[in-house]
Write a structure and sequence with these properties.
The complex is a heterodimer. By secondary structure, chain A is an alpha/beta fold. Chain A is built from 14 helices and nine strands. Chain A has a single domain, classed as TIM Barrel, CATH 3.20.20. In chain A, the strands form two sheets. Chain A has a seven-stranded parallel sheet. Chain A has a two-stranded antiparallel ribbon with strand order 2-3. Chain A starts with 8 loop residues before the first strand and ends with a helix. Chain B is an alpha/beta fold. Chain B has one domain: TIM Barrel. Helix content of chain B is about 40%, strand content about 10%. Chain B contains 16 helices and nine strands. In chain B, the strands form two sheets. In chain B, strands 1-9-8-7-6-5-4 form a seven-stranded parallel sheet. Chain B has a two-stranded antiparallel ribbon with strand order 2-3. In chain B, helix 2 crosses helix 8 and helix 8 runs parallel beside helix 10. Classes of the chains: A alpha/beta, B alpha/beta. Chains A and B meet through helix 13 and helix 14 of A and helix 15 and helix 16 of B.
């Protein structure tokens, strides 16, 4: 993995704004109106070519395919980063195809993840979340759409090899054309994927481990292709808010440790320095008052066998948490990728704000151990013009920080 | 003016969420016998609620400034056109909408697609707030005079009663600046300078009434910094903008003549709409002019990602002795609730540069109409919690 040897490198959390033609064709495919696979493949490859070039032009060092291979059927979509995986797994049935009575098999775990509307932050701020005029309940946001997730009804296996191969080929071709040396590809973590309903496995642990075993195919293929694998795992911090009432911290950590073990199981034998691990507290535009503090879970984060940790730090709920790293030593050889620009506001970060944030991290963990990133994917969460302006601010801020740090 | 003598005091920029029924009364143009009693009780409630939230320097939430929708970014200045004579709607200008005011904005050209979108992810651009739309096309066509004596008397009486009832001393009341009023086109006065002087003369009546009532007068002057983006940025004309701004400072000082400095605080922000704001003029380019305003307190946006770093400006520019800085440490610019530790960090940065006794912790801009009421009140609670944390560190 590249590191900030002589200047602060930049990257981002993965999702970028899809072009209109790709969204249109994805929408048509989702609605069953288009079955022209070749047209889709061409459109996708072209779009990935453009988005890789554009990242390079803006000064993003470690690029990805914008997650364009993870279909987004509308401009605003907060869920593509994990919904994509259903299409790549066997073992799931459409929720609508099952009788109501078959739903919601109780979990073996004593801690149960609740629905969006029963989240603790949602309940504290119910009027806000339900106000149609408030930006918390955006049209198109995961919070508002009432799509029901597929239910696990048989053994889970990975079937997404062709889609994944296309994603890898598109990204590598685009990088070669743009002359970019390092790219990453996102893949959902088992803890974040296995949050749906399960009617097949005996225990939740089995369900999580089966998901991890299946996803291992994807993880391995990405690493084998020479790309950096990014595991997207917002569930680690985010599950805290989904457990209502608030659980004792020790119980919560036990619950999460199973998921970290499952992830490490899926990552077995893969070189740590080709893997980065991303957490954030959920990307919806809400108050986030029930976000678990980083200091309470940082040991779990560091337990993941990854060479780099991407952590939300560029919004007002988590900006102060750079201090966590004063007390918790970042292990030698590991890299921190703090979010220094965020989807949480339309305002474009001033490059000096970005630089100040980077410098704070560099002073605590060492400049060579920091890569500047975003809080979360920008695509689908903020207007495309603002998303691109934020990446430009990120690159400019990293240049300013480099000047101060070297 | 109160100062942070033994702890960090808190205040906010003015606008607070209106109760729904008050919004409806304004929306329906309810007769005075219905509106006035409710307005009075709502002002009393909002004063008490601020005190309970731990806010030290409170106001009437700007409830006397009509808000006809719960989402409304413009009541802070649209109110005054019910209190001024000399304006009429020009249909041709009205058709241009907001573009008639932002003709020189580079940002609006660069981000045209964003601004054209009705609502962008997360945050609506907030262009369509009814009370601003009400001003589209409004043009000065005759001598400007202040006619709002009854309205300002009503607002003063309501706030005075609320303060008495809740044991609050020295509340503040907001009034708009001459520079802001200049956004509306002028057909009557020969020069823009003449127009500005007339606006200053007219609004001075309101300033005097507020100070005479024993309140702190807060002058809201986002235009002082906004106008760079709106009129001058397309040509990168910083010099032209500074000339304009320097004149506006003269005008507001003219309106403040005879008013003791320590009864006045002066608020600037770069406009509260949820846009990219990357055309905002840097504080360092205008801070010398800001400090020429004859006010004791300066309320400056500093709690959002475009201006958070500007606490450093005060390392190079000395805050004159006796003045008070009122930085925004929580903001309407995000729905995410500021962590109290972040609020404390921001306060401490300012305190270390200008001295703890010279800082009052505040908001970037009014919260009412700009974020959901539940979030607005939680932000005020985070503000006072952050001030407590900061006080503990600064007075240990």
């Amino acid at each position: 993995m590249r590191s900030s040897r002589d200047r602060i490198l930049t990257t981002h959390a993965g999702s970028l704004s899809r072009p209109a033609d790709l969204i249109a064709i994805s929408r048509a495919r989702a609605a069953g109106e288009s079955k022209d696979d070749a047209a889709y493949a061409r459109c996708l490859a072209d779009a990935v070519g453009d988005v890789v070039r554009r990242q390079g032009e803006l000064g993003i060092d470690i690029v990805d395919d914008g997650e364009f291979g993870k279909p987004m059927a509308s401009n605003y979509d907060y869920g593509a980063w994990w919904n994509y995986a259903f299409a790549r797994m066997a073992g799931f049935s459409a929720a609508e195809s099952l009788p109501e009575a078959a739903h919601k098999k109780s979990s073996v775990a004593e801690l149960a993840l609740t629905s969006f509307a029963n989240r603790r932050d949602w309940q504290k701020f119910g009027e806000f979340y339900q106000d149609p005029e408030s930006s918390g309940s955006l049209a198109g946001s995961a919070a508002r759409r009432r799509t029901r997730r597929p239910v696990c009804t048989s053994a889970i296996t990975y079937t997404g090899h062709a889609a994944l191969a296309a994603d890898i080929a598109n990204l590598k071709a685009a990088m070669a054309t743009a002359g970019i040396e390092e790219g990453f590809m996102c893949s959902v973590g088992p803890g974040s994927f296995a949050r749906g309903e399960d009617l097949h496995y005996k225990t939740e642990e089995e369900f999580v481990f089966a998901s991890s075993e299946a996803m291992r195919d994807e993880y391995k293929a990405i690493v084998d292709a020479g790309l950096v694998l990014q595991i997207d795992d917002p569930s680690l911090p985010d599950n805290w808010d989904m457990i209502n009432p608030e659980p004792p911290l020790a119980e919560f950590k036990k619950f999460e440790r199973v998921r970290i073990e499952a992830l490490n199981h899926a990552l077995r034998g893969l070189p740590e320095d080709r893997i980065r691990y991303h957490i954030c507290w959920g990307s919806w535009h809400g108050p986030h008052t029930t976000d678990i503090p980083l200091q309470d879970i940082v040991d779990l984060v560091l337990a993941v066998n990854a060479g780099a940790y991407s952590v939300e730090a560029g919004n007002v709920r988590h900006e102060h948490e750079w201090r966590v790293w004063q007390d918790v030593k970042l292990p030698d050889g590991k890299v921190l990728i703090p979010g220094v620009v965020s989807h949480a506001t339309n305002i474009v970060e001033h490059p000096q704000v970005v630089a100040d944030r980077i410098v704070r991290y560099a002073q605590v963990v060492g400049r060579e151990n920091v890569i500047a990133g975003t809080d979360c994917g920008l695509g689908g969460r903020i207007h495309p013009q603002i998303a691109w302006a934020k990446l430009a601010a990120l690159a400019e801020g990293a240049r300013l920080a480099t000047r101060e740090l070297w | 003016m109160k100062r942070s003598v033994d702890r960090i005091l808190t205040t906010h920029v003015g606008s607070l969420p209106r109760p729904e029924d008050l919004v409806e009364l304004y929306r329906d143009n309810a007769p005075d016998e219905k509106l006035l009693p409710r307005l009075r009780s709502a002002v009393s409630d909002v004063a008490r609620r601020q005190r309970n939230a731990g806010i030290d320097v409170v106001n009437d939430g700007e409830f006397g400034k009509a808000m006809r929708r719960s989402v409304d970014f413009g009541a802070w200045w649209s109110y005054v056109y019910d209190r001024l004579a000399g304006f009429e709607v020009r249909e041709e200008t009205a058709k241009k909408g907001r573009a008639a005011w932002t003709f020189g904005s580079k940002e609006r050209r660069e981000f045209a697609e964003f601004y054209a979108a009705e609502a962008s992810a997360g945050q609506s651009a907030g262009q369509g707030g009814t009370s601003t739309a009400r001003l589209y096309g409004l043009t000065c066509v005759a001598p400007v005079t202040y006619t709002g004596q009854a309205a300002i008397r009503r607002d003063i009486e309501n706030l005075a009663a609320a303060a008495r009832a809740n044991g609050i001393d020295e509340p503040f009341m907001t009034a708009v600046s001459p520079a802001t009023l200049q956004i509306l086109p002028n057909e009557h006065y020969k020069s823009s300078e003449d127009y500005t002087w007339a606006l200053a003369e007219a609004i001075a009546v309101e300033y005097k009434a507020i100070v005479d009532a024993g309140f702190i007068l807060q002058i809201d002057d986002p235009a002082l910094v906004d106008i760079y983006d709106w009129w001058y940025s397309i040509n990168d004309d910083l010099a032209g903008y500074r000339k304009w701004a320097a004149f506006q400072v003269e005008a507001v000082n003219h309106a403040l003549r005879g008013i003791p400095e320590d009864r006045v605080r002066f608020h600037i922000c770069w406009g509260s709409w949820h846009g990219p704001h990357n055309g905002d003029v840097p504080l360092k380019d205008v801070v010398d002019l800001l400090l020429k305003v004859k006010a004791q307190g300066y309320s400056v946006e500093a709690g959002n990602v475009r201006h958070e770093h500007e606490w450093k400006v005060w390392k190079d520019t000395k805050l004159p002795d006796g003045k008070v800085l009122i930085p925004g440490v929580v903001s309407h610019a995000t729905n995410v609730l500021e962590h109290p530790e972040l609020v404390a960090d921001r306060i401490i940065r300012f305190a270390q540069v200008v001295g703890r006794e010279n800082v009052i912790a505040s908001t970037d801009c009014g919260l009412g109409g700009r974020v959901h009421p539940q979030i607005a009140w939680s932000k005020l609670a985070a503000l006072s919690e952050g001030a407590r944390l900061a006080s503990r560190q600064l007075w240990q």
